[in-house]
Amino acid sequence: MRKVLERSEWSPIVIFGAAYLVVMYAVALYWHSRGYFDIRNLFFDADPDTNLTTFSHGWGRRALSHPLLELVSVPVRVLGWVVFQVGLVSSVVKLREVLALSVSPVFSAATLVAFYGVLRTVHVGRIDAYLFTLLFAVAFSNLIFAVLPETYAISGLLVTLLVGYYLRCREKGSPGSDVVWSLLGIAMAGVTVTNAAIFAIVYALHLTRSRGLPVWRALLGAGVYGAGVAAFVVVVCVVVYALLDVRMGSEGRLEWIVRFLTKSGAEAVANLLNLFSASVNAFVAVGVETASYREGCDAGGFCSRLTFVREVDDLIMVAWAVAPFAAVAALSARGGKRWRELYVVGVPIVLFNFAFHTFFGREMFLYTQHWMAPLTLLLVPLLA
Fold this sequence. Notes:
By secondary structure, this protein is an all-alpha fold. The protein contains 16 helices and no strands. The radius of gyration is 21 Å and the shape is globular.
């Protein structure tokens, strides 16, 4: 009887996820037919052109910053080959692109199911969990990255799974599985190498809170672990490309990193304010600007045509961006011990991303999937 009840509970969320996948995939197909994914930086400094090529054919970015991303193309290529052999299509290349457009919708739909699981892990009521998952699903960051061929939907799922596994270990008083932790770390770093830092933060919390290690040992162990998985995926990437005699792309190299580094205090302040702004925009697309596409690009080639970026002297942006966060921080603290683990795991992830992107990056909204799930979880005590 219990299993029947559990299946009946999960059925609506699985059906909803499937419907979400279909709708987002349909939008992706339409946008692709309109040529939107052929233009780099059309959406928030995103690179749908090279990502779609990577997902479709296994080449496109070839980036140290995304060392194992080409593996996403393996199921696409296999399925494309099977369909082509049946004789249903005339061009396997075009077929792969059509299939690869499903990557972001699939990962985004899976994130909704995983997010619901996280809510139930911390004993959010069934109906409330449905409503929070619906809120999460229609947040603008999730909607846009469920359509764009980008790495962020994949990272969004992995961050959600990481948080969920941490919370599951805490709820059960379990030390967790080293195999699961390793797979999570390798997958996260393989998609985007800086995700290794998010993994290390959560693993450090796990070591000290679930395994009882002293804080200094937990930090040291998690730091070594995170650096280890990052080094592992980078070495695998370099070795494979060397064996295949394939030229590595520019992303991840020193000259590429320098382009995105913050070069002044004013830029750092602007980035920080835009991180608050982007986090609000992650839920509601207010203040989107299309006129920011200027005649030509700046020296670094940055010219997003659709953006949320605001200048540091835009005091209105500062007011509406910072005030809601201050209100949430004050009001959600009323939850007390019941929600402690949400704060313990969610706040450090958000703070790390804010600290990191204050000094790296240009379009802050682009990175919101890296803290979207933890940020939404921090709203639970306020709204539950």
